[in-house]
């Protein structure tokens, strides 16, 4: 039997810094990177392109099977996401897409339809998998597991700053309310709810800079062998 490649799972609520930390850690290690949230977001985008009714679970399951998602690395490590061949990277990051993805992600058949697609990312020399259920379900046998968290207020502040830098003006209280609603939806769903795996190292990133979080995560892994 071939040995499975090493996996580091990084789970946590939205805005905890998972995406940024996971991408930096993957680059430092020279490992593959799976942004599992992008798969749920891609299905959300494809569903809205097809004008599907978000309450029609059967149509959303069909849409999950039919949606092609490709991650393409452009210059300077920039990752673009193609949905059915169309670059949907910017649309994927919208708050509205995140909310649709969170609703779609509560459908058990959608989750199981995406299971094997996510597992296919596990390749040598290793994988950093970012999401909500990477350590609890998809890669329950991962060698390294991290759960990143931060207070809802801090996560809303970070998101607010990010959006302001992009020239997008949003009301802070609305953002905080949306983050709290998404947390509740992700944590309370019956299938694969957002929670740390029993064997995950929980890191509260409130008040921490990205570099410190990256260093804490890399500390959990054995130092690379020197030639
Ligand atoms: O990480 P993200 O914000 O891009 O994820 C968008 C939504 O997708 C999130 O609200 C919940 C869902 N999701 C999930 O249920 N399981 C994952 N492994 C990743 C994301």
From TrEMBL:
Keywords: ATP-binding, Cytoplasm, Kinase, Nucleotide-binding, Transferase
Name recorded for this polypeptide: Cytidylate kinase
Similarity section: Belongs to the cytidylate kinase family. Type 1 subfamily.
Compartments it resides in: Cytoplasm
Keyword hit for rRNA-binding: no
Binding site for ATP: 12-20
EC number of this enzyme: 2.7.4.25
Limits of the Cytidylate kinase domain: 9-220
Substrates-to-products reaction catalysed: dCMP + ATP = dCDP + ADP; CMP + ATP = CDP + ADP
Species annotation: Stenotrophomonas koreensis
Single GO biological process annotation from the record: pyrimidine nucleotide metabolic process
Pfam family for this entry, one: Cytidylate_kin
Group of enzyme by EC: transferase
ATP-binding keyword on record: yes
GO molecular function annotations of the record: ATP binding; dCMP kinase activity
């Amino acid at each position: 039997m071939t040995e499975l490649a090493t996996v580091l799972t990084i789970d946590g609520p939205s805005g905890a810094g998972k995406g940024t930390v996971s991408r930096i850690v993957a680059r430092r290690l020279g490992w593959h990177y799976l942004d599992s949230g992008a798969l749920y977001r891609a299905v959300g985008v494809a569903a809205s392109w097809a004008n599907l009714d978000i309450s029609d679970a059967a149509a959303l399951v069909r849409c999950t099977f039919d949606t092609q998602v490709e991650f393409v690395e452009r210059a300077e490590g920039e990752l673009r996401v193609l949905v059915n061949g169309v670059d949907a990277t910017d649309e994927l990051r919208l708050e509205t897409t995140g909310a649709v993805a969170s609703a779609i992600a509560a459908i058990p058949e959608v989750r199981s339809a995406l299971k094997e697609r996510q597992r296919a990312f596990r390749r040598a020399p290793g994988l950093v998998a970012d999401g909500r259920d990477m350590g609890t379900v998809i890669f329950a046998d991962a060698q390294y597991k991290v759960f990143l968290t931060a207070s809802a207020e801090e996560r809303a502040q970070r998101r607010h700053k990010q959006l302001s830098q992009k020239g997008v003006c949003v009301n802070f209280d609305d953002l905080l309310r949306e983050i709290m609603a998404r947390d509740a939806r992700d944590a309370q769903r019956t299938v694969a709810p957002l929670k740390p795996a029993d064997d995950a190292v929980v890191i509260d990133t409130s008040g921490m800079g990205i570099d410190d979080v990256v260093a804490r995560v890399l500390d959990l892994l054995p130092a690379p062998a020197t030639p």
